[in-house]
Amino acid sequence: MKYLLSIFFAFTSIVAFSQEEVIFELDGVQSMSITGQGPGQDAAINPYEGQDTFAIIKNIGENPFSIRVKDASGKTTNTPIKPEEMKKITLLKGSILYFDSEKKTKTTLLFKPIQF
Question: Can you tell me the mean pLDDT for 91-115?
Fold first, then answer.
């Protein structure tokens, strides 16, 4: 019974950690690798790495910035985000997510698994 409770609490902790929102402050004239490059190079850990996920991004700063997604084939898509705007971006397995900014701003990021 104690073993089952230990597993339950460990799993609960992992789920709670994996669904936390991350806040980034972009300094301007900056391109930041957010996820997909690998350990030591990513600014955020995607707890669903290796599977298709959603990145939910909200610009909580005063200036616009853009999201750049490079898929596994090398195709790049750019998406601008205005202040107070939220975007739900699909990150397919093998994609790399970047934040690009020309001015200081602040953003939040949350990863969610794609469930069918």
Answer: 92
pLDDT tens digit string along 4-44? 333 333 333 333 344 578 888 888 787 888 887 777 777 78
What is the pTM assigned to this prediction?
0.77
Q: What is the pLDDT of residue 103?
A: 93
**For residues 29 and 37, what is the distance between their CA atoms, to the nearest angstrom?**
20
> Residue 112: CA atoms inside 13 Å, Cβ hemisphere, count?
12
Look at the block and give the residue holding tokens 């909200």. Answer: 58
Which of 66, 26, 45, 65 lies closest to 110, judged by CA? 45
For residues 32 and 98, is the Cβ–Cβ distance under 8 A?
yes
